[in-house]
Write a structure and sequence with these properties.
The complex is a heterodimer of chains A (about 350) and B (about 450).
Chain A: H1 18-40, H2 42-66, H3 77-87, H4 95-110, H5 123-134, H6 136-139, E1 142-143, E2 155-156, H7 159-176, H8 178-183, H9 189-195, H10 200-205, H11 217-229, H12 236-255, H13 263-268, H14 272-279, H15 290-310, H16 317-334
Antiparallel strand pairs in A: 1-2
Helix pairs in contact in A: 1-2, 1-3, 1-11, 2-3, 2-4, 3-4, 3-5, 4-5, 5-16, 11-14, 12-14, 12-15, 15-16
Chain B: E1 23-25, E2 31-35, E3 45-46, E4 53-54, E5 59-62, E6 71-72, E7 77-86, E8 92-100, H1 123-133, H2 145-148, E9 159-163, H3 173-180, H4 182-196, E10 200-206, H5 210-221, E11 226-231, H6 240-248, E12 263-267, H7 268-279, E13 286-292, E14 300-305, H8 310-316, E15 324-329, E16 336-337, E17 351-356, H9 373-377, H10 384-392, H11 396-401, H12 412-416, H13 423-445
Parallel strand pairs in B: 1-14, 9-10, 9-12, 10-11, 13-17
Antiparallel strand pairs in B: 2-8, 3-5, 4-7, 5-6, 7-8, 13-14, 15-16, 15-17
Helix pairs in contact in B: 1-4, 1-7, 3-5, 4-7, 10-13
Classes of the chains: A mainly alpha (about 350), B alpha/beta (about 450).
Chain lengths: ~350, ~450
């Protein structure tokens, strides 16, 4: 008999680990990745591969040479950051921009705060927003899905950008001439979209312009279901976001269907699904209690619709999540779980 | 829909290896070590000295105050020494060491139960017998039973809840007791009901013991005011507050006692001891202990005398497996890892668990990833990750504000943590120090 080990209870562990959760998220991202490859071809693979590789390399270099820690790049978190960053980029993005995004995501947003568990803001989103502000042209050139077709990529606008442009147009019309406005045939938002050849089913299956990972709502929902079954995340944050977006955009739509798109459009367009399911639920930057999760989710939903409808950018998901990330410590402080 | 408690909880693998093994009486050991403090409260005062001859059932330690319990010799023989001996908690405790000679019992102890009905005893007689027998809560908390049966003025007990949950993995002692001594338990329940003056008793049993549920339901059918409540399996359902919530739907307030919601909880082992104390005038000198573990040759349930070194139990179960890395007194979730197999069985020892070396070591801990799983599983609705940080910084006022004193130390948080963080280690430390601070503050006020 060897020596007896003395430790305090509990003496058993459930077997959960950081890796199981992180790789679980990566598995949940596979359907969306397959869709992005189907829609955008080889470009989807290269952008994702470069992003993941860059994130892993930067994390390794920073841990080994700057922080002088044992590198933990295989815990899966840097890989998730890489995949999510790539999923937020258009397929036509120059690869050197992807590398810069990865450096900002890992170096600035994650490691400078102390690495996994200590960052305030979602690293992938910080990287994405940095790129959006620094390289606005490259970041808003959206090739329409071509699959592996060899023809030159055709760029088009995302559904949200189409709407934004239409809204600006009608506002300009209203400003220029009141009489012209009266003569103009009323156009609802769904009419504007269908005039551009975009249907709701295209948006659900992902046959629309957009960044790599955000286009196929159904694939993202599949990943959501997987994470719920594996108990990697709870349903609270995504459902709070969906519900808020539906209610808020529904009210706007009822008030003025000509000016504001309906709830289903908001739900299935842009990065809402990707953001709500995979980015807002990031363990580190989201609240701990269920009540806190509701407040956080409702905040993201409201801010997203406000930015989309009234802001300068067509898409508001990234900003909404980052703003609410900033509120997370405050939410944690004031939202306590239901006590016994 | 089976009843259970509402907040948190985990589902560790049950591993009830010895559930099918009937209770076996362990042969008398050569020597017993009987600690004078086997209960919460003041240690008993020894009433024997070195060289004295004692009989089984004789008082060797007198309860010192209201929250204390009598200690009896579990064997007949000679007192070899009274000295401090390390117990399961790792601290030296004053203990009476007795060399076993024969098996001679106190004359007042009956071998057969009195031919009387529970209704033949008065409330005072029952409580007196329990007090004399040195009975304490045998589920592990070891709170003196007569204190629980004497509610403070202004409180009225309404229901007796009998704890047959045995939610700790591996342990089966209570399960076997319910199967093999159902009749005695029914008598014990009626005695406690009389002592408390309650009309209703509910036996809470988790659904993983269907045989015990069926058996006790059959027995309870003929007795008015005794019912069996099957419960959904979930750890820590055997926790007093969790069990009351599951059975009655009522929540014991923070810092409050079960009596605040009219409930009194007694473990089935305690109920059996009450039966023996009243009907046989027999003090608490033996108990059923589960000896188990994945590599143990013959996992089983043994009736053994208090003070028996656990090495004797391990021998009976086929000896210490080669791969043993940890010996635990109690279950894997709340039990204590012991320093040697010389420590003695006490009134609160429900099991001896031998863990293989491969399961004995903790994995190194990592950064908190703030997943919130500890918050989800905490059955008291606390925030273990936060309590751990506060305890690490020794922020006692903040810990008190965050209700660290509500922690029942069930270990669900640490069991769940994907980063293997030592949550409960630090929370326990913080709770201990916060308790000291609160007591010092109260003392300063008085």
């Amino acid at each position: 008999m060897s020596k007896l080990t003395i430790s305090l209870s509990p003496h058993v562990h459930g077997g959960d680990s950081i890796e199981k959760n992180m790789y679980g998220v990566l598995i949940a991202l596979v359907p969306a990745f397959i869709c992005s490859v189907v829609f955008f071809g080889w470009g989807a693979i290269t952008v994702t591969a470069v992003s993941v590789a860059a994130c892993l390399i930067f994390e390794y270099l920073i841990q080994k040479y700057l922080l002088r820690q044992k590198p933990t790049i295989w815990d899966g978190s840097a890989m998730i950051t890489g995949v999510l960053l790539a999923f937020n980029l258009p397929v036509s993005i120059p690869l050197w921009i992807v590398v810069i995004g990865a450096l900002v995501a890992i170096g600035v947003a994650k490691m400078s705060f102390g690495g996994l568990g200590n960052n305030i803001f979602n690293p992938a989103l910080v990287g994405r927003v940095f790129l959006l502000i620094s390289f606005p042209v490259q970041m808003t050139t959206w090739p329409t899905p071509q699959g592996f077709a060899t023809t030159d990529a055709v760029t088009g606008a995302t559904p949200l950008a189409i709407l934004k442009a239409a809204m600006a147009e009608s506002e300009a019309d209203a400003a220029s001439s009141a009489t012209a406005m009266a003569e103009q045939a009323p156009r609802t938002m769904s009419e504007i979209l269908s005039s551009q050849g975009i249907s709701m089913s295209d948006m659900i299956y992902g046959n629309i312009g957009g960044s790599l990972g955000e286009v196929a709502a159904i694939a993202l929902l599949l990943g959501f279901a997987y994470m719920l079954i594996r108990r990697i995340i709870t349903w609270h944050i995504p459902v709070a976001i969906f519900a808020t977006v539906i209610v808020f955009s529904g009210i706007l739509n009822l008030a003025d269907p000509e000016q504001f798109a309906g709830p289903l459009f908001h739900l299935f367009s842009g990065g809402l699904m990707l953001g709500a399911i995979f980015m807002a639920t990031d363990y580190v930057t989201s609240p701990m209690s269920h009540k806190g999760m509701w407040i956080y989710g409702v905040g993201i939903g409201l801010l997203t619709v406000i930015i989309r409808v009234f802001g300068a950018y067509p898409e508001g998901m990234s900003f909404a999540i980052l703003i609410m990330n900033g509120f997370t410590p405050l939410i944690n402080r004031y939202c306590k779980p239901k006590r016994f | 829909m089976l009843k259970t408690f509402k907040i948190g909880g985990v589902h560790p693998p049950e591993n009830k290896l010895s559930a099918g093994e009937a209770i076996v009486t362990l042969p008398l050991p050569e020597q017993v070590i009987i600690p004078l403090s086997q209960h919460i409260g003041a240690p008993a005062v020894p009433t024997v000295k070195k060289g004295d001859h004692v009989k089984a059932g004789q008082v060797i330690g007198q309860a010192a105050g209201f929250i204390s319990a009598n200690i009896h010799s579990s064997v007949s023989g000679t007192v070899v020494n009274i000295e401090a001996v390390t117990d399961a908690s790792g601290y030296p405790r004053p203990s009476v060491i007795i060399q076993v000679e024969g098996d001679e019992w106190e004359e007042s102890i009956l071998q057969e139960a009195e031919k009387k009905q529970p209704s033949d005893y008065t409330k005072e007689e029952i409580i007196k017998a329990i007090n004399a027998a040195g009975i304490v809560g045998m589920g592990g908390a070891t709170f003196p039973t007569q204190v629980k049966l004497s509610p403070p003025p202004g409180n009225k007990a309404e229901v007796l809840i009998v704890n047959g949950v045995e939610c700790e993995p591996y342990l089966t002692a209570d399960h076997r007791l319910m199967l093999e001594h159902g009749e005695e338990l029914m008598t014990g329940i009626q005695l406690i009901k009389r002592a408390l003056g309650v009309e209703r008793a509910v036996i809470g049993i988790e659904n993983n013991k269907p045989d015990a549920i069926t058996h006790l339901k059959q027995l309870a059918a003929g007795i008015p005011g005794v019912e069996v409540c099957p419960l959904k399996v979930k750890y820590p359902q055997g926790g007093e507050k969790q069990l009351i919530k599951a059975v009655t739907g009522k929540s014991v307030p923070s810092g409050g006692l079960p009596i605040a919601v009219g409930a009194v909880v007694q473990n089935v082992g305690t109920v059996y001891a009450v039966y023996e104390a009243v009907m046989k005038h027999k003090p608490l000198v033996e108990r059923v202990v589960t000896v188990t573990g994945k590599s143990v040759k013959k996992p089983g349930n043994y009736l053994c005398r208090i003070g028996t070194p656990i090495a004797r139990l391990i021998e009976a179960a086929g000896g210490m497996p080669e791969d043993t890395g940890k010996v635990i007194s109690g279950g894997p979730m709340m039990g204590k890892a012991v320093t040697s197999t010389d420590i003695a069985v006490t009134k609160g020892t429900s099991g001896v668990l031998l863990m293989p070396e491969s399961e004995s070591q903790r994995l190194p801990y990592r950064n908190c990833i703030r997943c919130g799983k500890c918050v989800d599983v905490c059955p008291m609705g606390l925030e273990p990750y936060h309590l751990m940080l506060l305890a690490g910084e020794n922020m006692l006022e903040a810990l008190e504000e965050e209700h660290v004193m509500d922690c029942i130390e069930c270990g669900s948080c640490m069991y769940t943590c994907p980063a293997h963080r030592p949550l409960l280690d630090l929370i326990r430390l913080g709770k201990n120090r916060t308790g000291q601070m609160i007591r010092a503050r109260k003392a300063a006020k008085n």
